[in-house]
Amino acid sequence: VNAPLCVLGAGSWGTSVAALCTGEVRLWARRSELAAELNETRRNGRYTGDLELGPSVLATSSIAHACDGAAAVLVAVPSAAFRDVVLEAAKELSTTTPIFSLTKGVERGSHATMTQVIGECTPGAVVGVVTGPNLAKEIARGLPAACVVACADAEAARLVQERLHGPRFRVYTSSDVAGCEIAGAIKNVLAIAAGVSDGLGLGDNARAAVITRGLAEMVRLGVALGGNPLTFGGLAGVGDLVATCTSDRSRNRRVGLALGRGESVGAAVDSLGEVAEGVVSADPLVDLARSKGVELPLCEQVAAMVKGASTPAASFAALTARPARDEWDPALLSEEHG
Amino acid sequence: VNAPLCVLGAGSWGTSVAALCTGEVRLWARRSELAAELNETRRNGRYTGDLELGPSVLATSSIAHACDGAAAVLVAVPSAAFRDVVLEAAKELSTTTPIFSLTKGVERGSHATMTQVIGECTPGAVVGVVTGPNLAKEIARGLPAACVVACADAEAARLVQERLHGPRFRVYTSSDVAGCEIAGAIKNVLAIAAGVSDGLGLGDNARAAVITRGLAEMVRLGVALGGNPLTFGGLAGVGDLVATCTSDRSRNRRVGLALGRGESVGAAVDSLGEVAEGVVSADPLVDLARSKGVELPLCEQVAAMVKGASTPAASFAALTARPARDEWDPALLSEEHG
């Protein structure tokens, strides 16, 4: 009994994941022309270049067809389209079908994470995330990587692990959905900060300091939202943060680089040609953190920069003007967080 | 009352730190020719290029002169020479003078950390470390960075913080000497692994996975040696690890890059012209971990590679052949480490 996996979204990551899966896969593309191209050419030229889709991948522009009899649904559409797509899919799914988010971001307006959106669209469904240092363009080229599949339902996590795990893609399981998801959302914002630091020419020490203080922001917000501190030291946390902050393949980092070199926000975003989730998520994440009483100095500066309310030079001057003290807040040093 | 700081060792890091300090500094160079050159030209051409030493820095080849009346001693010589230099200095110091290690490594043979060496040479002395993402060549160029000064004696830590802190060098304090020190030693070994990954062309996802699984090794060993888990998420841990693993200015990373591209160990080390502590520390660290019942798979492969007992391809094949499972050992998930 090898029911098909359903992948919603045929961008670079959705296509790459569909190609990694063992067994039958239905890959949903919104545009029927793209679905036809995928089925005919076995390639997604715009997003994944020469990556070949095996014969067990069937592309379709029908969500009903994609969802029919699926063992699990993996949703890989940008956060701005996420709710609409999940609502459409929910009509086609039994309530026992696990749904995993492959999207790292926060919904504008609601401030909801992607699994919260899934939960609102399909009450009672088993919900999880797939995350980690997974730059899609590298995976599309067959380079090795590792990821985390997080779900409160260990059986659902193992199902996805078994279908995705292979010699070039190591899949670890976790039960910490909240921690994995907030890590994936905030790292996109922090990658913009790291890119700005490099765009300003501040060097590798400064970038490492941005990553480290960014990790502290991730831990503070993640713990406030119920995440396990260990998650942030793992692939979903440090791993993804480091990859996104240091790889020139990262869209969010590239936006920051352009800003640091003096480009306008509009020019920096336009030159990408793809969505940089960190640009969209910065403001909602800062709001979400404030509502929990958590301070995110780096994210606040990114939110100001992408709104045009601050410049890279002014933002970094503000950050370094903060007083230096003990590295960790004494509250974090309490026995609760070891 | 602004007693001089004493910096032992006029390599790239010792010279850079001497230049950063406020107030009077005595900078000890083993070779009297170098001390004379530093005093005359105000530069250390070989190690720090155009970095200018201010008028408050006095270079000397006399350890007695360097130590005389020092408020604190900062030791920045390679691990292989560390014990001899500290023994010489100890004869000149009162037992109340705090001694800080600026060297990241483990002594060959004894497996002692640098602060343990200091403790053996000067029983009863106040001992600390200065560590963090501090690539000397960048600091010598005036680029910004942050560090951690760790000492059980908070007053001694603050003394060094006050003398080193400035707009371009942010100094945080910590009381976790053991954690800071083991982080600094193991990151050099892990940087060789990251360099090998890049030398093999495995990509940014793979490098991020090496850094993340390397951090897990750092946490396991550091906690076993009495370190605070939070230290490894901070500048001394993640921060220094990321800088050393991703910067082409890192000597240890460069050794790994050369190995990954197929050079011999001898050629990789020779082409550096400076000591790469990770080459020396790999074996002692693996031994130290074994004596504590801690497994360090990445460090073990590095130790094998630098001994010529394994090749980059064989080592990475061995690492990826390990079974994938839960990301963290269940023992680490116990309430003790939250």
Structural summary, described in words:
Two copies of one chain form a homodimer. Chain A has 338 residues and is of the alpha/beta class. The first copy, chain A, contains 17 helices and eight strands. Chain A has helices spanning 12-20, 32-41, 45-48, 63-67, 79-90, 114-121, 136-140, 154-164, 177-199, 204-224, 229-232, 235-246, 251-260, 265-270, 277-291, 297-306, 312-320; strands spanning 5-8, 25-28, 57-60, 72-75, 99-101, 127-131, 145-151, 169-174. Chain A is globular. Residues 333-338 of chain A have low confidence and may be disordered.
Supply the helix-strand structural class of chain A.
alpha/beta
Largest sheet, spatial ordering of strands of chain A: 3-2-1-4-5-6-7-8
- CA distance, first residue to last residue of chain A: 45 Å
Biggest β-sheet strands, sense, barrel of chain A? 8 strands, mixed
Estimate the mean pLDDT confidence of chain A.
Answer: 93
What is the overall silhouette of chain A?
globular
Output the radius of gyration of chain A. 20 Å
**What oligomeric state is this?**
homodimer
Helix content of chain A: 40-55%
Count of DSSP strands of chain A = 8
Poorly predicted spans of chain A: 333-338
Most extensive interface between two protein chains, with residue counts: A-B, 58 and 58 residues
Helices of chain A, by number, come to 17
Approximate strand percentage of chain A: 5-15%
What string gives the helices and strands of chain A in order? EHEHHEHEHEHEHEHEHHHHHHHHH
